[in-house]
Design goal:
two-stranded antiparallel ribbon, 2 domains, alpha+beta, Heat Shock Protein 90, 291 residues, five-stranded mixed sheet, single chain
């Protein structure tokens, strides 16, 4: 009986050690897999266990990692090719657009009939719109490539927001919008990229004008939270989070948008680690940026 008991204890001890070793191997595989899935690396999983099934599992997981790596490389290369193509196309469009603008300016100096003035005005508006879209595409392709061309500086968000609103005053007046503006007296000074902040503010106001049903609220709190709100029935059936997707546009019958305005806002806020949020309630869209 004692002999059988000793044998049983030895078997139990052996099995316990086997289970512990297997659990350690599985933990090792789990941590290794999570690390390699999180970062871009060519290294594969290795295990210290000699158990055949654990080693087979490691081989299977390595095959999955190789497929993930290949998919990531194809995505990365494709994304870079798209950005390069956009950059080249927008750059190539600049030269003829500049030439068109030059000839248009010469034509406007000539004597012309009222009908010709009307046609030239339409051409001018369309040309300026094309120039704007081309610049927007060019800027996005450069910025999304990870290039930051300036150093962070102390930015007075209050003053930059006031300047932005003043720049859009003619457009607000033309649309009959009397904005409600509430900017804190407390100076919101942040260490940011000035060009990025300027573009964020401009794109937010421009987007609000594009979809506004006739109202606009712009508020900057003591905590540095900017909130831009406007009514818009056009967005009733739209997931507001999609507004930040590249090239997403709301079907309004307008061709005046590339769908990059809010996408650039998202890109720049991420670059500066700012909080960005959008909500749509009771017919009103509100976009917040936490400076």
């Amino acid at each position: 009986m004692n002999y059988l008991l000793i044998v049983c204890l030895i078997i139990i001890l052996f099995l316990s050690m086997k289970i512990i070793a297997m659990r350690l191997s599985l933990k090792e595989l789990k941590e290794g897999y999570e690390e390699r899935a999180r970062i871009h690396t060519n290294t594969l999983l290795t295990v210290s266990s000699r158990d055949r099934r654990v080693r087979e599992l490691a081989v299977s997981m390595n095959k999955t990692l190789e497929k993930l790596r290949d998919s990531y490389n194809r995505y990365e290369n494709g994304d870079q090719e798209i950005k390069k193509a956009i950059t080249n196309i927008s750059h190539d469009l600049r030269t003829p657009l500049t030439a068109i603008s030059g000839y248009l300016e010469l034509a406007q100096r000539q004597e012309k009939s009222p009908g010709m003035e009307k046609y030239l005005s339409v051409i001018e508006n369309r040309t300026e719109h094309m120039k704007k879209l081309t610049e927007e595409l060019f800027e996005y392709s450069l910025m999304s490539g990870g290039e930051i061309t300036e150093d962070k500086q102390e930015v007075n968000v209050n003053r930059m927001l006031e300047d932005c609103i003043m720049n859009y005053y003619p457009s607000l007046k033309a649309m009959g919008i009397n904005p409600e503006i509430d900017i804190t007296d407390k100076k919101i000074i942040r260490n940011l990229y000035p060009t990025y902040v300027e573009r964020i503010l401009s794109n937010l106001v421009s987007n609000a004008l594009k979809y506004s049903d006739g109202d606009l609220e712009i508020m900057l709190s003591d905590e540095g939270i900017l909130r831009v709100t406007n009514s818009s029935d056009k967005l009733s059936n739209v997931d507001v989070n999609k507004l930040f997707d590249r090239f997403f546009t709301v079907e309004t019958g307008s061709r005046n948008s590339t769908g990059l305005g809010l996408s650039i806002v998202k890109l720049f806020t991420e670059r500066m680690d700012l909080r960005l949020n959008a909500t749509y309630e009771n017919g009103k869209i509100a976009i917040e940026v936490g400076f």
